[in-house]
Amino acid sequence: MSTSAAAAEVVITGSDQVIVIGVAVVALIALVIAFVLRAGVLAAGTGTPKMQEISAAVQEGAAAYLARQFRTLGIFVVIVFVLLFALPATTTGERIGRSIAFLFGAAFSASIGYFGMWLATRANVRVAAAANGDGGREKAMQIGFRTGGAVGLATTGLGLLGASIVVLVYVGDAPKVLEGFGFGAAMLAMFMRVGGGIFTKAADVGADLVGKVEQGIPEDDPRNAATIADNVGDNVGDCAGMAADLFESYAVTLVASLILGSAAFGTKGLVFPLIIPTIGVITAIIGIYITKAKPGEPGLVTINRSFYISAAISAGLSAVASFVYLPTNFADLGIDSVRDVSGNPALMAIISVLIGIVLAAVILWLTGYFTGTETKPTKDVAKASLTGAATVVLGGISVGFESAVYTALVIAGAVYGAFLLSTTLIVALFMIALAGCGLLTTVGVIVAMDTFGPVSDNAQGVAEMSGEVSEEGAKILTELDAVGNTTKAITKGIAIATAVLAATALFGSYSDAITGALISAGDAAGLAAGSLSSFVTSVVSPGTLVGMLLGACVVFLFSGLAINAVSRAAGAVVYEVRRQFREIPGIMEGTNKPEYGKVVDIVTRDSLRELATPGLLAVFAPIAVGFGLGVGPLAGYLAGTIATGTLMAVFLANSGGAWDNAKKIVEDGTHGGKGSPAHEATVIGDTVGDPFKDTAGPAINPLLKVMNLVALLIAPAIVALSVGDSASAGIRYGISALAVVIIVTAVVVSKRRESSLHADQPQATA
Amino acid sequence: MSTSAAAAEVVITGSDQVIVIGVAVVALIALVIAFVLRAGVLAAGTGTPKMQEISAAVQEGAAAYLARQFRTLGIFVVIVFVLLFALPATTTGERIGRSIAFLFGAAFSASIGYFGMWLATRANVRVAAAANGDGGREKAMQIGFRTGGAVGLATTGLGLLGASIVVLVYVGDAPKVLEGFGFGAAMLAMFMRVGGGIFTKAADVGADLVGKVEQGIPEDDPRNAATIADNVGDNVGDCAGMAADLFESYAVTLVASLILGSAAFGTKGLVFPLIIPTIGVITAIIGIYITKAKPGEPGLVTINRSFYISAAISAGLSAVASFVYLPTNFADLGIDSVRDVSGNPALMAIISVLIGIVLAAVILWLTGYFTGTETKPTKDVAKASLTGAATVVLGGISVGFESAVYTALVIAGAVYGAFLLSTTLIVALFMIALAGCGLLTTVGVIVAMDTFGPVSDNAQGVAEMSGEVSEEGAKILTELDAVGNTTKAITKGIAIATAVLAATALFGSYSDAITGALISAGDAAGLAAGSLSSFVTSVVSPGTLVGMLLGACVVFLFSGLAINAVSRAAGAVVYEVRRQFREIPGIMEGTNKPEYGKVVDIVTRDSLRELATPGLLAVFAPIAVGFGLGVGPLAGYLAGTIATGTLMAVFLANSGGAWDNAKKIVEDGTHGGKGSPAHEATVIGDTVGDPFKDTAGPAINPLLKVMNLVALLIAPAIVALSVGDSASAGIRYGISALAVVIIVTAVVVSKRRESSLHADQPQATA
């Protein structure tokens, strides 16, 4: 199996060209509709002047944060651009294309994140106003969901547009160029997830520790200097970070499908993976427009219905597309390498796509079951509050472990199911990638669902701070916020599923890259390249096993670093809010306003500083392992990150979601309600869960993709240096040592920033 | 590489025979010294009649639990014995030997556990009496450490005796027979770890929830009906479970070394792995006798000194043994398969052994750093109590993640270092196994250190309950208890390191078993068996990756099940203690005694019921994966369990240790001392950590070994059924389906036992 051999046979002419142009047109239409939805959201009533004032402060803080973040990340992007340009490539065109595509991937990812944040910070006040009588619950839900819809269509539209243009321009070289595109998108998304995640939870935890715990004032109380920062956080973390993350999931899954598709199915394999997500875009538009809250129906039921309807339409249309576009036997594909493969390509393809769609639906159901306010697991966690905080924490951890296992089993089943469709490895790998495309058809609706979370959370914040929302309005907003907690957890489950499918599929490309490099390096060892490549990657080799152990280490280290970063940054918030209470008279009496901007500045500075260590770890760890130990241990390393990362990501997301909603259950009056010991116990659980579910957990998804793509990009260089003379061995170990030094320095520096949360300092009150 | 080919060359005659007999004699001497130490412990003063009464109650409860546990496990042992007998074997002698060895392994493991528990329940009152004036702190420490010494020498003596007898009787077939021995030891140890772990923490958590939280009475208060059960738990969990666990670590590491040693080095490879642990036994005797507490010196310093001195002596003696016994070039080994290997076998061997010894020392240091009361990480966790329980929990989780990463990196470094010693795979694998033997030299002292923990914990319990211990005595016992927390964490780190080294080495045997079976099955596919075996186990194959994901799942599921089991069983304790407070008048006033035995009965029943699910999972999951998906995914599965399991085990052990000692720091008067909000926060952290560090975490070590050995035993059967006709495919999938049904049923049954902790029930007080 070799993509380069197959690539030569790939040409896009006639009807294929028309289809790809059609894909680009649909992508443009999606962008137009996103613009229309945006206009609809902006047209809604904006509430009282006080609400508008608060919303404006949040907008300003969020925009300032993103602007500073992009400046910081710009330096990173330039460095990686240069490094990428220096890496080996088959042709100069490929080299230039890959580097330029990297820039586009990063820029698109950033734009999507910015757009998501921009719209969400404008939607919050409109949802609050609607809930407060300006249209009621139905209108509030519609604004929230259409905000998400605009972001979802922008995500899928941009992803599809980028991919289709690259395919039209580069044709057979498109997969190689798209590696750069995917890498740019994933790298930027990872940084945005980490930075935004630290921001949002540092502000949230810090605000809670001083406000709720020390001063006994409610969440979002305007006397708390950290409240604006807390609301800014929802937008830069859950909106900007999440939108960028799902964009990269989209991009990387497409990249994997196109690489493997062109190798397995030739031209048709390059076009078909574009058709399926195009269907997804169309059904997402339908799903967004049919979402209409019915009176008395729980919000989650409404949203789930839209998901299931659009998934069903996607399944139907994909089946039609498969049988119309793909032949029913391999000989008709017209490429030599798979001429004799048995089976029906059209049937295989549609089964794979269906596996992906069903996978999304099952994860949706599983996550809803484990983290929803109406189901047994979360209720059990809430009930555990009767025996104190320790049992709440243990209960949430159990829910997290258990749901992670079921989710991983379902994902493993999907991978294995697609894999079994063909005994020819390259075809089987393509089927796994197509299952990923099936998942992608749901991304538009998923983004819409996810964005719902921070928008309704923020709407509640704006309402609370303004003090101008009716009891009825407050109740609506609380319900929508709980729905948002579950939809956020669902999105994380889907995102990690795309990571596993894309990474498993990319693994095939990695193997191919090793083999190809071994052939071209003309290895003198006398071994056939193929057998050598399977030997070095044998899982029973101690080298591979060591690589796996290192992979598992990186997932744990990354999670620990992210959680620590939140603790440290939250400490700075606590310090500042206490200072303001002490030094600015009249805050508690409401006669004087705290300096909200000061806290936003501090969190901005700290989260940008803190994102460096986990970010550097993600980029340099595979470089250290690959150049230091070789391609076999690097393969083991990637596998170790996928296996451990999948479980860890779902565990962190779902335990956090369960704790958050267990708190909501108690706040709704169960087990003693607000202010009871049970409430205090669930607040502790929720605080533990904050960095789990919104910082460490969701960042693992782009982490896996970044590391996989880095491995794919450096594999040929490692092989070239491995088979060379002692000078090249020196270069290899030198690169590895440099990467290790960078990682160790980053970890040591971050550890030296003594957690100010733990520093001895005066409390605001005696 | 094929062990069967090499086995033919193995004969034990002349000086080799003398050496193996010498090993057996040293093993017997160790057992005699264990008996002498035991007599010394029993000769110490037994304190006041009240203390004796309490100690007798603990002895009775512990003995009753173990008796019932052995009856339950007896059924399991018989079933597995039959299954083992039915599995394919090369010769009938091997078949019978393997099954009999399984019984011996199980019996030895059980005996060691029983002995550890028996002596510890007698040492507790003697340590309490010594601390209370009958000899003072030095005497108290000596009794505690010599109790451990007796258990440690019994562990190493029995392990060595079993292995040397098998080698003398079976010679070349010894490795195959020893697989059964190791499996028996590991299986029983796993059940004892899980059952004892559930018992100890159910009683502990249950006692704390009603006593400390609801009634506000101190730990070990005689008015609490669960106190005796709590003290029984320390013995059946930390003593019996731990001793059995370290015995199986010993046995399995020896098995791996002997399998690979005979394949790589012939006869000398079968004898040398016996020599190194024999040196360890000798130095352990020295270490135990030189341990003498100096006035004013922290307990941990005293114990660590003994460890370092005996490790240094072991290193020196091992170097001498290597150069005296092993030749300096491979040709002189006299076996054909490695005649042309370059390098110096004696030098390689001593480097490997040193790697193992250094690894033990580094883990000792790392764990002490992360969980000790005098070092920064634990102090930081204690300081986090100033901002509440949530930050304590997050702080402990960070410490756990971080220390797990460093520990895993050190283990990975040791594996890779040993692996790099030779480019010949079988030799490299043997070197990894020898690093394991280096670790083993420290086991005698490690067991002594570990047993120190529960004995001092229990001594404190006996003292507290009797109410007859002076303030000075209580202070001594509290200090010793804190030392015990750290030594327990260290032991867990060492145990998991042996698991990784043994499992990595066993992996080589697994690969060998696949290849051998493929050859003998005469695979008609036309592929060379070797290349096929590396293909099916290639880490980039989706099948292998799915196996890895399943392996990671099992680690998470097992941990979740164990934690849940503790919650459920603790709920039953809470219920019963509340009932007694309600129905037996005068308990709180001290005019009437609670029914301690009732609680012991309940915990005994529940923990034996609860151990079934995780136990069945461990045995049947590899069967389900192996027969269902094949040998490649099974290899991936094992690798996944090792990578994830290592990190998870250390994470759970060290975060639990840090929380426990953070509580101790606060109880010593820091941050407000006992009764302050900071204390309450650290009590919550400690309760979360209880099932982490004493139930789920330590059971992962035997879990990994059980699954590896099951895989090794079933591999030939899987291959035989894989290359057969459709009938054999039917049998294969049938076996897999049956295993899945057993696991699912076990999980469903355990989930249907609604957590009584969460059930609505009347509280003892309004």
Automatic annotation (TrEMBL), chains A, B:
GO terms for cellular component: endomembrane system; plasma membrane. GO terms for molecular function: diphosphate hydrolysis-driven proton transmembrane transporter activity; inorganic diphosphate phosphatase activity; magnesium ion binding. The record marks K488 as: Determinant of potassium independence. Its EC number is 7.1.3.1. InterPro entries: PPase-energised_H-pump. It is a multi-pass membrane protein. Keywords: Cell membrane, Hydrogen ion transport, Hydrolase, Ion transport, Magnesium, Membrane, Translocase, Transmembrane, Transmembrane helix, Transport. It comes from the Bacteria. Pfam families: H_PPase (PF03030). Its cofactor is Mg(2+). The chain crosses the membrane at residues 18-41, 70-88, 100-120, 147-171, 177-194, 247-265, 271-291, 307-326, 346-369, 428-449, 489-510, 548-575, 611-629, 635-654, 706-724, 730-749. Belongs to the H(+)-translocating pyrophosphatase (TC 3.A.10) family. K(+)-insensitive subfamily. Proton pump that utilizes the energy of pyrophosphate hydrolysis as the driving force for proton movement across the membrane. Generates a proton motive force. Homodimer. This is K(+)-insensitive pyrophosphate-energized proton pump. It comes from Nakamurella multipartita (strain ATCC 700099 / DSM 44233 / CIP 104796 / JCM 9543 / NBRC 105858 / Y-104). The gene is hppA.
